[in-house]
Structure formats: C-alpha cells, structure tokens
Amino acid sequence: xxxxxxxxFNVGARRQIQPLLRALRHHSTLVAAVCELLxxxxxxRKPDGAMLASLTHDIGTLAVLVxxxxxxxxxxxxxxxxxxxxxxxxxxxxxxxxxxRFPAKLVSVVAGHEHLTRRSPRPVDYVDVVMVAxxxxxxxxxxRLAPDDWSAIPAVGKIGLEAEELLLLLAKAKHxxxxxxxxxxxxxxxxxx
Length: 193
What we know:
Elements: H1 2-9, H2 18-41, H3 47-56, H4 59-68, H5 78-99, H6 104-112, H7 126-138, H8 154-159, H9 163-181, H10 185-191
Helix pairs in contact: 2-3, 2-7, 2-9, 3-6, 3-7, 4-5, 5-6, 6-7
C-alpha cells in the first residue's frame, strides 16, 4: 500500500514535505500496531483487515499535503495547514478509495474514523477499531483527538476496554510498530519516504 501511494504521488521527489510525510507514516504504523492488538482482543475482527484499514485511514492527508506543497505559505505553517487537513482529509480519502475501488468497509473507515460521536447499532466494526486506535495513538499529546473522557466515546464503550487498558496497548503498540515497519524499510528507502 505504501509503495502504491508513494508511486501515485511521487513522494520521493517532494523534499519540502518529507518531514510531514514521515510523521504521517509514523502515525499510520502506530495506529496499525494498536489495531492489530485491539483486533486480537475482539471476536470476529481480522487483524490484517484492521491493519489495512488503519494504514489507509489518513490517506486523504497525503493528498492534501501534496497539493499544499504548491502553496508555499501553507507548508511550515501549522495554523493554516492543520485546519485544512482536518476539514478535507476524510472526504478526499473517501473519494480516493472509492475511485480505487476499495471495499466499502475500508472507505467507511476513512470517512468516519474521526466522528467520535458515531453510534452504530452493529457489532464492533473496522471504523470503531480504527477510531479507538487513532485515539490511543494521540493519548497524552496535544492533538485535538487526544481524549479527555474515554467513556464519552461510543466506540470505546463498544470495544469494552477501560482507558487504562487502552493506554497499556499504546506501550505494547510502540514495540510492535518497529516490527510492522521493519519489513517495509527497504521498500520505503526505494520510494524515498
């Protein structure tokens, strides 16, 4: 997936946004590691599907970054760029995955992983898993998605783990992230990401 995305956007040639791309890759692999651990705790969730969903959950951010690079006042100005990414990445990512004919389950993750008040009557799905993994990845940082009250988020309730258990997953995931990334390193070096 990373190879395809890097080729589509030719990210190796984009020196100005390399730090932002590395941060995006790091975030996506951390969320994937948390998803893998969460999926092992949940019935009927396949870790591979959850990991693919997590690796694509912020794909729209990549498109926004590539376009923003053409506007010098945006790159390096988080006060302008971050609200733009927040507003657009879900819709752009959804449109990208639909155009690439990804399964509807994955498209719904991209579109809904930041809709923290989402209430689905169905059992835990990939949107719930990626949403919670995304929240876990931001725990303790200054991101707008760093949760203050885990119990107020319906997806957390559906998953059935307490905040302390979720935070323990974060420590485990940081260890697993290295295992996830290791096989990708030669590919990432080839593509320049």
